[in-house]
Amino acid sequence: LGMCGAPVVSGDLFRGDDEHPAELDVVAVGMPVTALALGSDFTCALVAGGSVRCWGYNHEGKLGYGHTESVGDDPGEMPPPDVAIGGVVTQLAAGWFHSCALLEGGRVRCWGHNLDLGLLGLGYALDNVGDEPGEMPPPDVPIGGVVTQLTAGNYHSCALLEGGRVRCWGASGDVLGFGDDEAFASTYDYVLGDAPGEMPPPDVDLGGPVVQLAAGSDHTCALLTTGDVRCWGANSVGQLGLGHTETIGDDEAPASVDPVALGGRAIQVVAGLRHSCALLEDGAVRCWGSGEYGVLGHGALSMDDCIMPYQFSCAGAAYCCIGDDEAPETFAPISLF
């Protein structure tokens, strides 16, 4: 079972602009759902038994059904059929134009846009995968190791491998954490994964083993075994949480930059379009990046962006956020309950 609420866009989601989610119809997935992945205007569900079902906008075959018709916007289209992935799936990741699945045994398969951005990591860019009959299941992505977790952004994907290593592919050296834009351009012509011999990608230098990944639009954050969080990629609104808006990963390895100053040990990190949040072991939540639409929950602040973490708390103390003018403002914490 699943419930979704948002404006209707080609069948990706349903209502929710003036209704409480509990009042919405249950999404007819057809089987018990164990996990969800939300991409740009589409949703994929991991269902019992390790199958995948997707619905929404099907531009460039990102639903994986061998066509480009949207699913879920006309009567009789739900529940959607299984996506032909060719194995038992344990985790999903969805980006702007593509989807990826982690299969039993640590293999990865991706589908959707494959013309110029290296999103699928297949070593060629001749055609999309999943928009025409006979293209599914897709081949394995040659990552070079056993994968334990996936994450996907707009134009990139990252995999966490056994032993805590991280490897990324797609467009732009900074987003992939390459650390040297000139070398990346000369080696990969600005895109990694769209030409023969480019895969597997190199390890991202994060300074230690990683236990979890989260990708935003053009940035990625990693939770290390130490409880530190390191982020890299685009940083125009402080989504890396470093107290400045300089891009990380274009001229330096992510490990060369201090971790995000969270004030405690993190146990989870998540990323949105242009903001990030970390859950700390004491139950506090800190968020940073674009404050657009109140996504950081700092309603008392007048600034749009928060380039250092802002803490949510159920305690009585006040906390402060450093804005783009580096001037702290103090305010009462927001209760999550």
The second-level CATH architecture of the largest domain is: 7 Propeller
How is the main sheet built?
Answer: 4 strands, antiparallel
Question: CATH superfamily of the largest domain, please?
Answer: Regulator of chromosome condensation 1/beta-lactamase-inhibitor protein II
Order of helices and strands: EEEEEEEEEHEEEEEEEEEE
Structural class comes to mainly beta
Output the radius of gyration: 20 Å
| Average residue pLDDT | 85
Strand order of the largest sheet: 7-8-9-10
- Share of helical residues: under 10%
Cα-to-Cα separation, first versus last residue = 25 Å
Number of strands: 19
Features:
single chain; 337 residues; mainly beta; Methylamine Dehydrogenase, Chain H; 2 domains; four-stranded antiparallel beta sheet; 32% strand; disordered N terminus
